[in-house]
User: Fold this.
Amino acid sequence: MATTEIRITGFGGQGIILCGYIIGKAASIYNNQNATLTQSFGPEARGSACSAQVVVSDDRVLYPYVTSPQILVALSRDGYKTHKDNIADDCIIVYDNDLVTLEKHGPKVKTYGIPATRFAEELGRKIVLNIVMLGFFGAVTGLIPKEALRQGVETSVPPGTQELNLKAFDKGYEYGLQVKKKVKATA
Amino acid sequence: MKADPKNVLVGSHYLDGNHACAEGAIAAGCKFFGGYPITPSTEIAERVSRRFPLVGGVFVQMEDELASMGAILGAAWGGVKSMTCTSGPGFSLMMENFGLGIMLETPCVLVNVQRGGPSTGLPTLPGQADMMQARWGSHGDYEVIALAPDSPQESFELVIHAFNLSEKYRMPVLVMTDECVGHMTEKVIIPPAEEIELVERNYTDKKPGEAWPYEDTKNLLSPLLPVGKGYKFHVTGLTHDQRGYPIINDEAQEWNVRRLIDKVTKNVDDIVWLEEKDVEGAEIVVMAYGITSRVVQPAIAKAKKDGIKIGMIKMVTVWPFPEKRVKELADKVKALIMVEMNYGQVFLEMDRCVAGKCQTYFVGHAGGTVHNPEDVYKTIKEAVK
Assistant:
């Protein structure tokens, strides 16, 4: 029974919930797995720290909440600080390395950084930073097939923005493959 | 009767429980929604307000919850299927007109996305502490039907089922979901319309002038009278006879209230819906409903690994309470455990039915999050000692 807990954190407006939604949708609708998305609601989630949680499993998800994620996606310093201590020993941390400075983690923790916001700006619209990050997440974790994630993007973003979003996804994905190759080469 | 294909959003969707409730209502042919927004139920109203114009429904944001409940009763008498949704304080406000719906024998559906209470409590976090309010929240004697979905998929299905029960038994039916299920997003498979069975409204086949709104039928399920077709009739929250006119005496009261009670209690075998797993031969049986019926399962699996003979009953319907089944089990098992997100509500019903014939245990808390499966496991271990 393979179950993976994912937490995506950042601040309201970065597209954190949509990012979680696409991961869950890609896994459950386009990759035939089970995925449960929950999110932080409430005043604290409006404009300040906010997070989405996804549990992806081959079996039915019985416990809906994330307790110690195997993957932490951090898009803001605040979000990272709030959640950095509640992670699995072998957690994969995926983060925007222009916005988040990592602190010391255990020896089994793997970290992958991407200047997602900068890449999004270069693509012309800062708003797609979450999709750049999603592509990067897809490449470095290998949790969900690329095609499933792309389908998730295509069917979830506003009509008329698919092309830009898929470009953003591919940008993140390609960068992810490069980073992974580099890590392998140095290992 | 099958669902109308134009109301059914066929396919695999990634939806939260609230959106799934809205799709269930639309698939069931709901054509009027009167509501007042309140967290964590608002997404139901939001989706309905976006989708209704596409399927020919009427959405009205009412001035408050009293009016919302009143409006859906009026819409039902006007000839359409109707629904409202609310949470916490809104459920309290709806109780008076919910009672009117019971007394008028009006088919409609009320979804309560339960949050932590009392009062404004925890608007954004789950609870299951409105279960006794669902049962007894309006004044007077009556029976209710309440369903508890454990997922977005079941939210879709049980809202349809609630509409069917409301038409069949001619009464408001409650869907008691919670914030966790309401705001949880999962895969929801919406089947084609021809696979969705709907109960049609039972209208009289008698001519105008010959039919009464509460005709004294043998099975207590009187056909409704349509409006705008020449039938002139009167309905009232006052105690009434089969003609629908007030009769203020003890005899009419007995006839009227007995009807409201008997139409449910005499049909419990049709209404009660339990999903049992490994109950035969079990020493311990865990009972739960809604989201709690999911989070108890890791604890049960762990206990099973320890060699404990354990089963579970998921109550898809919580009201009417499965009295007969609990009484049967009380003679057979060592202990029954009730797990719910409150400080002991449905547990009291279980305990009453057990009547000391086996041990009873309760695992509960005040809400705000779902149970930690470890707490359930600890109680199982204690029960088996």
